[in-house]
Each structure stands twice: as structure tokens, then as C-alpha cells.
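Table 4 source record.
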Amino acid sequence: AKKAPAKKAARKAPAAASKSSPSAKVSGRRRRLSAAQVEAWSMLAGKTVVRAVAAAVSYDHMRTVAIETGETGWRADVLPLSVDGLAVLALVSINRQRRDGLAPAGWALVALGLAIAASLAANVAAAEPTWACRPVAAGAPGALFLSGPIDKPPGGFGFHTRRRPGAFQPPDNP
């Protein structure tokens, strides 16, 4: 009786390799990422880092302002979440409406504007009162809110007219 060589069995590729992972294996070899995939992964990584840092700095600035204005305990801790949470909800709503081919709802635009204004004001108010520190403090919410549409085509927030039924629609991703 012949025995199967142990080396052949050890060379088999793992069965559960994910196709979306940058290190996915195909036929026992590493699959090379296309330039578009590298760009997409880089954009995702960059956005994640920018958003995490900006959100942490913005949260700390807004919490500082809440404490300085008399809020204490858990209220000072959650107040920044309500401001940035409102902005996130507005952006999700605007993006969903844009994806559905609609102009964004007026209330979503108002909510986004108010959240950005409140976040900017709190971040600037928490900064040292010098002309050099104030613009730096405004950078955190600016980076947080601009990291979303940075890779979108013109009209990234959906500022366009309603699509008419039957009108020519260019493909989203050719």
C-alpha cells in the first residue's frame, strides 16, 4: 500500500480564506491586490485614523466646555456624544437620500449645520485664547466632518436636484 507524502497534504491552502482580505490566498498563492483595491484599503485606513483622532479630540474639547459651563458627572460625559451623534445621523440620512436619487431633506441639512456649528464653537471655546490655537482647535471637527465626502464625486453630500423618472442616469460605478 502506498502512503501519501506528508508534504503534499501540508501544501494545501486554508479553506476559510476570506476573499475580501488583503492577504487572501488563491490556489495556495497570495493574491495580488489591484491598484483600485490598494487605493480603497488606503482610503478606508486613512479615514478611520482621521475620524478616530478627530472624534477623540473633539469629544475632549466639548466635554471641557460642558464642565466649564457647569455640567457635572455623566451629563458632561454624554453631551459631546449628542452633538457628534446628531451630525452622524444627519450624514447617514443625507447619504441614504442621495443613494436613493433624492435631494436631501431640509431637516437633515439643518441638523448637520447645527451640529457642525456647535462642535466648531465648543472646540474653539476650549482652545487657549490665542490666534494660533483657535484655528488648530477648529481642525478636529473640520477633519471629522470632511473625512466623509473626501472621496465622493461632486455633490458628495447630495446637493443636487431630484432625479426625474425616465431621465438619463449615468452608472454609479462603471
